[in-house]
Amino acid sequence: MTGTLPADIQAVFDQFITTEYTTVDGRGQPITWPVTPYYRPGDPCISLTTGIGYPKKANDARANERVSLLFSDPTGSGIDGAPMVLVQGIADVDDRDLDANANRYEVEAAEKLPAAAAKLPPKPLRKMAAFYFARIYVHVRPERVFVWRGGLDGEPEIFDSHLEEVRSGHDEEPDVDLAAPEGGAPVWDERIEQFGDLYPSATLALVSPDGFPFCVRVPVAADGASQRIRILAEPAEVPLQPGLACVAGHHHEEDFTWQRNFHVRGDLVEDDRGWFLMPHKMVGGFEIPPGGPLTVVRENAKKMRRFRKIAKQELKRREQRMRPG
User: Does position 167 have pLDDT exceeding 60, yes or no?
Assistant: First the structure.
């Protein structure tokens, strides 16, 4: 359905540097990470990629093909007054040829993010970082697209591949059993304190009754006294309900030469002050701090060791699957 969308929506897919990608894991927990979207106007899918050393973005989509992409941060896109766009779609995980994927990634990254690609290590050294350069692609075929042009107060424009269902008011997607709030004491971290200050807005992801993740950017604030993340606005048409949710914060330079990102998983709950996330887990992403390659390695050393271990396990599993007999 992407080819039939208005040109300005296709331009968002094409020109945004980041999209907030949400999967749903086996527990029913939505998980959001910022990723770079790859799309050309008229393409049937929006693609993203991840390294084999951190394959959860792909593995969760393989287990549950219902995913979403939120386009809410226009930094570096060159689009003034860009709408916020949410895509709910079906994911196809492509890890059939890791070498071909690596070559494709090298071309696409250099084309879309030339300044960031220029900071990558030279080719002879990339074999030492196979956890990153051996790539898995995820291709997302849109099923439903929400477009907010006038802010969160207004109702979104909706484009749906099931047009007859939309016109008749009948949705063929069956409701699913959603995970209940986990409960328990909050888990607090100093980075959570950045919500409301460094991150005046963040993405809130939950699971819709039809099983698709629903993600939207909302104003937020950390409430240190009660150890909660307050949701400061209730957007129209967002299916807020108690359950597992994820709040993600990220920002990046215009040319993507540095980027920071993390997310918080927990329970979405309502009280007399409104909706809030009770945090149960804070997870930091693979970040690119300002500075050179040594700064990147120094800051991500622990993660890189873990990613290398995971990459070896993943590559070994692939070899065993491909052996004849």
Answer: no
Give the count of alpha carbons within 13 A of 184, CB side only.
13
Query: How far is residue 129's CA from residue 117's CA, in Å, rounded to a whole number?
Result: 15
Structural domains in the chain plus CATH codes: 2-322 (2.30.110.10)
pLDDT digits (tens, 9 = 90+) for 231-287: 999 887 788 999 999 999 999 999 999 999 999 999 999 999 999 999 999 999 988
As a whole number of angstroms, the distance between CA 53 and CA 314 comes to 8
Task: Count Cα atoms within 13 angstroms, Cβ side, for 110.
Answer: 9
Using the predicted structure, report yes or no on whether residue 165 has a pLDDT greater than 80. no
Determine contact, residues 264/277, Cβ cutoff 8 Å: yes
Q: Give CA–CA dist 324/146, Å, rounded.
A: 46
- Separation in Å, CA 38 to CA 88, 151, 278: 16, 25, 34
Residue-wise pLDDT for 249-261, tens only, equals 999 999 999 999 9
First to last CA, the chain: 41
Using an 8 Å Cβ cutoff, are 73 and 5 in contact? no
* Beta strand spans in the chain (E): 19-24, 30-35, 46-51, 66-71, 84-94, 135-148, 157-160, 201-207, 213-223, 228-231, 243-252, 259-271, 274-284
Q: Which two structure tokens, joined as six digits, stand for 246? A: 């994820």
Q: What is the pLDDT of residue 249?
A: 97
**pLDDT band with cut points at 50, 70 and 90 for residue 43:** very high
pTM for this one?
Answer: 0.91
Single out the residue of 258, 251, 253, 250 nearest to residue 119, CA to CA: 258
Distance CA 141, CA 166 (A): 18
Letter for the amino acid at 13?
F
